[in-house]
Amino acid sequence: MISKRIIPCLDVRDGRVVKGVRFEGLADVSSPVELAKYYSSAGADELVFYDITASAEGRGIFTEILRETARNVFIPLTVGGGINTLEDFDRVLKCGADKVSVNSGAIRNPGLIGEAAKRYGDQCVVLSVDIRRVGESWHVHAKGGRVDTGLDAIEWIRRGVAAGAGELVINSMDTDGVREGFDLPLLKAVCEVADVPVIASGGAGCMQDFTELFRAVPGVDAGLAASIFHFGEVDIRELKEKLHADGIPVRRR
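The chain above was modelled as a monomer; its predicted structure follows.
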């Protein structure tokens, strides 16, 4: 059985890691470099680095802080924020990323997914989707969750995977930072249409939330969280021991 992954997320604004609730009220947490060093040695399977205001501000990722972060990470690193062209993919990969996450850039130019997959391989292209429930459906949001595109999230995910996205990060805006558990109905709907690895993001508040995630939605490959790891509320190695005891396969080291 394939091991489930535990992935901390660094939401970076102006060179600092921040965290909010439902994508709002961002508060300063720490240096991305220092957190990256810590997570690289603390049992994390991978690390995600998002420059969360790059798209909204119409700029590229701050490459110097990314290079320094990548130099201190010895686990796979996914990087996103302001990815709009193949040149952006190239620049981020040259800074030390293993995978590139695209969100608003793919909404503006859906062809970017296939172009990047053809040049760099499907395994390098991560489609990150910020999703909020609107009425009876889920809508894709852009520019760090600021803009409702009106796109149906499940159909957009289906299209993205068909175009060549090799992995999905499903960011539930409804559960982000609330700490009441992952958005299980959304994740079940995604797994029904996606045949690539799915990373669940938004809502983790305790260790039991991860157990419930993997039991309720076996198709989910990884759980991503920020606050509970950043503030020391959940230790990753202890989380993995609990998951192992609960019969969920994880990498322990």
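The longest strand covers residues 125-134.
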